[in-house]
Amino acid sequence: MxxxxxxxxxxxxxxxxxxxxxxxxxxxxxxxxxTGRRGYLPDAVELQVGDVADASxxxxxxxxxxxxxxxxxxxxxxxxxxxxxxxxxxxxLGTAVxxxxxxxxxxxxxxxxxxxxxxxxxxxxxxxxxxxxxxxRRRADLDAGRFEPPCPIxxxxxxxxxxxxxxxxxxxxxxxxxxxxxxxxxxVWASVTGHPAVALRYxxxxxxxxPRDTPYAGVAALFRSALAHGEAPRVxxxxxxxxxxxxxxxxAVANRLALEHPDVEAGGLTAYNVASGTPRTVHELATAxxxxxxGPPPVVTGEYRVGDVxxxxxxxxxxxxxxxxxxxxxxxTGAADFAAEETDGGTASGxxxx
Length: 354
Prior knowledge:
The protein is α/β, with parallel strands linked by helices. The protein contains ten helices and 16 strands.
């Protein structure tokens, strides 16, 4: 298969390129190199430098391509509303230009890098009222150290539930809103062309080349940076926030499976959680990194960010049953590999193209 990987010089994109090459596919990369690094690609990979929102660049990049793995995007949690236009131009307009060109050139399959941020808060249940959706956390509660969201009906403590792909989308920042729009645009393209589209909703991706400014697991890069300076990782809230940390090599495998799978539904968009299936706390992540380098244990600070969600735990069952995807890297192994990057000549400062 001949695959175009947009953003293929970035964090996730470069690992996807390596996975596809190892599986025998032919790969072309489109990247504007505003954040990605050419050095992440093997010399043999064809690189076209340009903006995915520029049709004059995208159309020749699609020549002879069978499928597109769309990783290119502006990432980060945003600065209120001041950068909304940039998110829309780079993520949504860029996706629209790409899909329009794909419809004209005949590229027959799309795999889109989406994100767990489309869900907003994770899943919760009240003992009395069943499944509920808590509202935004209040600053007064956070100041008082009450980090767990209560039942919006009776204020009782809630239990955490897995989020599956049927959950209501609830974007809470500009980046998340742009990811929802990308999914909708991809669904329109699939419906009109009759081709299959897959949205991979990445959960907290970590691994080599992880930048600090990422909505997935930037905290891992911050923790590692502190440890590299001999400092204890600073863990916000009480450290009990649940996340699903999935290694970037597993994410790359999920992309390959979505591209190769013969039974991906044509004429519509199918979303898949890409997650490890083993939720861990933020404190556990910090501890695993500290243990990997023999550094000081994490310090729980009680600090918070108002816009952060408390828990997001994914159900990976759809990806497992339909794509055959199972994450293979446990947190201890992945953390040790990630922590070693700065000491063996790697870098934590490259920016992502996903």
